[in-house]
Amino acid sequence: MEANRTADVQSNVAGREQRSQFNAYRALRLLETSLVHVILVIGALAFIFPFYWLIITSIKSNSELFIWPPTLIPRTVELFHYGDALQEVPILRYMGNSTYLTVLNLIGVLISSSLVAFGFTRYQAPGSRILFAALLATMMLPHHVTMIPLFLVFRALGWVDTFRPLWVPAFLGNAFFIFLLRQFFVSIPSELFDAARIDGSSEFGQYWRIMLPLSKPALTTVAIFQFQWTWNDFLNPLIYINSQSKKTIALGLQDFYKSQTTVEWQQLMAASVLMVAPVVLVFFFLQRYFIEGIALTGLKG
Amino acid sequence: MGALNEPMVKPSFFKGMRGRDTLWFYIFISPWLAGFLLLYFGPMIASLILSLTNYSVLLPTKFVGLYNFEQMLKDQLLTISIWNTVYYAGLSVPLGTVIALLLAVFLNREDIWGRSFFRSAYYIPSIMPIVAVSILWIWLLQPRYGLINSFLNLLSIRGPNWLGDPAWAKTGLVLMSLTGIGTSFVIFLAALQGVPRHLYEAAELDGANAVQKFFNVTVPMISPSIFFVVVIGFINSFQVFTQAYIMTEGGPADSTLFYVLYLYRQAFNYFKMGYASAMAWFLFIVIVILTYIQFRLSSRWVHYGS
């Protein structure tokens, strides 16, 4: 009895100690969790706040723009800066040009890169390994090495100040996309194609009716990246386009900034919002393909 | 009928298969093969030849041997542009990598609320058009009314005249580059999800704290990704162009005259295509050597798992 009670008391004490230890541990855990959340929130603010600032600057009044401290929530909402910007420069024309180039680049890159990736995935041939190594090597080649000779070639063809230098290359495949698609294509069982071949399907039939329908996620990833690159590209339009009427939105926006003698910040920000909006929309509808695309290529190096 | 015939035709059919495969291989890859020859290989050779000439749109072309490369050694602006580029890359790549890694590690914890929100928030600035972002940052870095200096003012720090001050312009551009680390962040996040849980559990049993777990488990396990991000980061920041072209035009006092910006000027403003090609080849060689050295070094300390 006596012994039993002592044991009881002892276990009680041990239990209490354990419980208080447990509570201390939980409190520490909670503190750590909150601290991590605070860091993450500060990080998110640092990343997102500039874009909030972009939007509210585009609707602030002139007097509100230059006061200190700056107002975090605009007192006035002046949407007319958008109208002014559209009047000042042909932004819609620029966006139309960029859209036109984006569509052509998408068509070109989706057809050519998937065909080439199919070739590299499905067939063994003399030279196929060396050519694949060459493909990977071109991914390392800085654009600036080929930029000057390409300019001379396109100039000789009379293509300067036309859209052609900005979309024709897309129809000749893109090493990065070929690599990305091949990574995806090798995961599709080859039995499917062997079966189709025995059933009398042609090689193009296998590509068109089996590979492409099964690769919609990878093709979407390619399309998203290409859209983003064409829409955002600055260097190539800068080199090739001179006429006002042929400028892309990236070139037009830069031109808008450079041409102002006194900077109209609201108009500039309004024009920037218009350029950014399609990218943000595409991101929100298709964001998982962005992430998958990076995982598919980035990790494999 | 067809099925009955098959065994008999098989041997020759198989031989024919190889030839057919070769044919189809070259048919399918022909767009890229044409592109490789016309857009990469040909221009690469042309660029090498150009770099040995004084080719300029205005003058008759002459073969000058290594003259362009000799000139590069004497070109003071070139030296400045190399220094600027190295300075920029040396700051923005390590800082960006550390921030991306820390954010990914924090976000990878099990007790995080709103994970997809944070992931989008960190990723989205990196896909924004660089022209729009540049113009936004000119405004953010405005010395008096800019958001950055207003914030510093709140902490009673007098912010510099960022883009107007040769001592601060590069730092301003580095600051801007830090918001574009989304891709590295996503690469790290994916790598972290591949680290087996049991390694952390084992470390916990051994009494390791969070910091020890980070350095002894996380970093070695995802070192291939860290390595990849750093190499790509250097290659990309050696080619920084658009921000400087738009925001500072290489100024003030050439403090943001980066290598590719200088190359662009030589080629398209002064039309010294030969000299610019020599510069482009120098950049190419640097990138190749850098990649090679880092890959060699990496085999010593990078953990590639099994």
Description of the structure:
The complex is a heterodimer of chains A (301) and B (306). Chain A is mainly alpha-helical and 301 residues long. Chain A folds into two domains: 2-65; 84-297, Orthogonal Bundle (MetI-like fold), CATH 1.10.3720. Chain A has 14 helices and no strands. In chain A, helix 4 (91-122) packs across helix 8 (175-185). Chain B is mainly alpha-helical and 306 residues long. Chain B has a single domain (67-301), classed as MetI-like (MetI-like fold), CATH 1.10.3720. Mean pLDDT of chain B is 86; it is low at 1-14. The chains are: A mainly alpha (301), B mainly alpha (306). Chains A and B meet through helix 1, helix 4, helix 5, helix 6 and helix 11 of A and helix 1, helix 3, helix 4, helix 5 and helix 6 of B.
Count of separate structural domains of chain B:
1
Please outline the major beta sheet of chain A. Answer: none
Number of domains of chain A: 2
Query: Considering the protein shown, what is the CATH homologous superfamily of the largest domain in chain A?
Result: MetI-like
Helix vs. strand class of chain B: mainly alpha
Radius of gyration of chain B: 26 Å
Distance between the termini of chain B: 51 Å
Which topology of chain B does CATH recognise? MetI-like fold
Mean pLDDT of chain A: 87
Structural class of chain A: mainly alpha
Instruction: Give the CATH H-level superfamily of chain B.
Output: MetI-like
